[in-house]
Amino acid sequence: MKTIRDVAKSAGVSPATVSRVLNNKGYVSEEKKARIEKVIQEMGFEPNQVARGLAKKTSNTLALIVSDITNPFFPELAKGAEHVAHLNGYSLMLGNTMGVDSEDNDYIKILMNKYIDGVIIATHDIDSELLEKHTKMPMVILEMENKIENACTIKVDTLQGSITATEHLISIGCKKIAHIYGPLYDQTAKERLQGYQNVIHEHPEREEVIVPGDFTIDGGIAAVSQLLKDHPDVDGLFVGNDLMAVGVIKELSRLHIRVPEDIAVCGFDGIYLTKVVSPEITTIEQPIYKMGELAAEKLIDRINNPYMNNESIELKTKLVIRQSSKKDN
């Protein structure tokens, strides 16, 4: 493979002069420039993009930081972001914060040292105060309140989605509806819990029943097992995310509890797993792929226009009714 030194030797100039021509930076006489360009063409020389990025302190690379890559929500998000990145000449790097101590690992500082051009934050494992230290990094933040002046924040109407889920279970005749909520450091978990509580409190005759979970399949199994020990008469379940809902369906099947005849189940997110388990799971569907595309579009806008003001965008959810809540009234 030809190198910049080979080009310089053939053109009778220094490697630094070749570098100035490649980067269109600094003075080079027209005669030398023409000679270098001719040698480049004759050799079929292609500059090392990584090396050029290091020289310019850019890399044409975007980073997507997620909390748990094993959750099918995030690969779908990444597909949308990667599609837009590639259309605009960028590559996408993926980072995972699960198991990372955010106090000891300043993820954004690490990315800046690697000359990442911009970052999409899709995790609650990085404290917003830490993000506020890096306002020079173009940034799009998903589902997290923040005070970063030049960031774009993209949210989903999680509160309304959880209200819709709870009202749906009431509409199909569920008398005692419980909610398995996610970790409360996660803003989406808090909003989903709040939506459930808002609806239940509008009906004084209904009892609020809540059980903690952790947004994983195993967390759903453990939560519904504990729930049924304490409240065996529950007949409706709004589960804080689809992964936990898959765990719930698995455990109810093991216990020979019929879904939806004995307990109706509704999840939240719209991941593909809700369509491959049996019974298929009713869910509040988020526009995951679109969110990824939009995040990458807004990030590239901020890379190209670094002085843009902060921006907040809210996307809508929709109720997708499947077998887990189709009761014969």
UniProtKB/TrEMBL annotation:
GO molecular function, one term: transcription cis-regulatory region binding
Segments forming domain HTH cro/C1-type: 3-50
Record Pfam families: LacI, Peripla_BP_3
Protein name: Ribose operon repressor
Keyword Transcription regulation in record: yes
Domain HTH lacI-type: residue ranges: 2-56
UniProt KW keywords: DNA-binding, Transcription, Transcription regulation
